Amino acid sequence: MSESKLSWVEKYKPKTLDEIVGNDAAKKDFLDWLEKWDERGKAALLHGPPGVGKTVLVEVAASTLNYRLIETNASETRKVDFLENVIRPAAFNKSLFGNKILIFFDEIDGLSSEESGAISFILELIESSRAPIVMAANDPWAPSLSKIRDRVYMISLHRIRPQSIIKRLRDICRAEGIKCRQEVLLMIAEHSNGDMRAAIEDLELLYSSREDINAEEAEKILSYRNVERNIFEILRAATYAQTLEKASISLSSSEEEPGDLLEWVFENIPHLSPKQWLLPALRYVAEADMLFRQISKNSLWRLLPSFYHKLASAFFVIPQKTRVNFSFPNRIRERFRRIQHLKELKELESFFIRELHVGRRVFRRDFIQVLRLLSKNDEFRSKLLNRLSDTRLRELYDSLILREEARRRHV
Amino acid sequence: MSISDLLWVEKYRPKSLDEIIDREEIVSRLKAFVKTGNVPNMLFVGPPGTGKTTAALALVNDLYRGSTAGNFMELNASDERGINTIREIVKDFARSRPSAEVPFKILILDESDNMTQDAQQALRRIMERYASVTRFILLANYQWGIIEPIQSRCAVFRFPPLSPTHIREGIMRVLEKEGVSWNEEAIDEIVKAARGDMRKAINIAQSAAGGSKKITGESVKQVVGVLHPKEVAEMISEALKGDFSSARKRLAKLLYDDGLSANDILREMNSELMSIEMDEKKRLQVVNVLGEANFRVAMGADAEIQISTVLAALATDAQK
Q: What pLDDT score does A1 carry?
């Protein structure tokens, strides 16, 4: 959830051409083109499945060959004033400071055929630009790209081989100081279907708590991933839907279980919403939550449409959304760790609540902090350790009471 | 081995009704029960730290003259084993015969107002059915959390918050026995923070002493700052500053790392909200949202989702 911390995908983004894994032929092809772009056509289109390194290749090549990169994504490309005011001047700018310019339209297949303004702008630019133009797309055969396709140099990138992905993952684990099992890495690699970004995201998802994890646990967590590609699309659709009904329909088309969909919305609404709309938006989420608990408790599945309506309303009540990358729900990521933590807490408590004649709730509220404070005293600590009969209890006391106190002071 | 001598609350918990110095009225009635050897079903009602458990345990101890084994059981109704398991345990205990030397067994059921209506109905039937062999002492924070038919079958005893004088006397007695010296300011601070809760008062005193032989107003204040869920106050002030995402992280910490119940967090938020400076219109709005959250959590909704609406209300300007 921490916004300030770099995700591993960002942190381990290749900085040199050598660090880009796989697709050696395409890499060479692209660099050759970029060196002789005015002979070989002003525009190139890198195409291939997600997460194979299209964007990274352009970014790294630009910085290696000293290009200033003017980069746009699909939603910026849609805006005509952005194209006119930012892209056009860049394309015709005689570089004042000797900076060469490279124009990059990312996610170009995100344009629909109706957005002909953007497409004709690009076509015109290809004719007249003084700077090389690169585009990237997952699907070069999208109907909207038919005219563009004929005017560009096409470079195809392929899925990354599992061995290459595993090697990269292992490097990251080493850098992060994480112990990981070969079978888990293999599972991630296979699961990623040649998508390096997804593989690294999965790795972070599994190891963010830095604890060892076995193949079985990994599989459970990764099963959330299967539907995740889809969920990003769904959240985006709900965010930009023109009507409440469209937002609601798109949410209900999700393959996520309603409970998990709720988690995705709860996680992302606060990122999406400027402060003044946060309260009404979250209130809808809270209503959806209430409704969902009632639905699942009493098997009122016919009320599910109302649940989707509430969730859609949460998006809809925010008139202007902050642009964000949707995040994986922290609560799902942490679910396993928290269950584990709670289990340990209960184990330790069981000893104390018998002795103190109180329930768990009261113990947590009235005693845990007291024990932490008192344990700062050497005499108290050693006496208590003496009374804790088995090693397991002593371990739990150490991790939940002693080290927690030290950690808090540190923070 | 037991830890009961390490924590003062347990070490100085009165073992016999004779050792309970306040609560004269309750104690004298309980003593009469012991004397006649007949104990009715009872309901002890009052906020935390007012002596409900202590009175119940002391009664049991006096009645059985220390040999409680097999004749007495203590259960917590909010036990995570689930109400069905509790019901089974209660039933099994209630129907077994008491040992030869006592006329009946005693079951203490703590936090019994946390039981659902259905569970309480079942409990009522068990109470009736096995009345000849088992007596119940139900402990609860709220009387109206107990269904009417149970109330009418119980002798009800009310345990109001302890008066400042009683807290003061209790603390000084413990400190004397521990050989810890104090000044007036220290005692004043403890009494202020304890708000009629003896358990809290003694815990504060022990934490402030921290193994030394002296407490002062300063050491007490320091400890109160840590013990009193300061986290809640900080979460509120972050939200008020508009830093929703930090407040949300703190909420997750309270819920999942500290394992606090949503109810305890909400209660703390409520009392905090009443005491801080805030535009009254905004206070009204926040309190409304909080009430809604409280209700929904009680109805089984998700604590983090519901409480975060309160944080959002704090982070937003009042709607005109």
A: 40
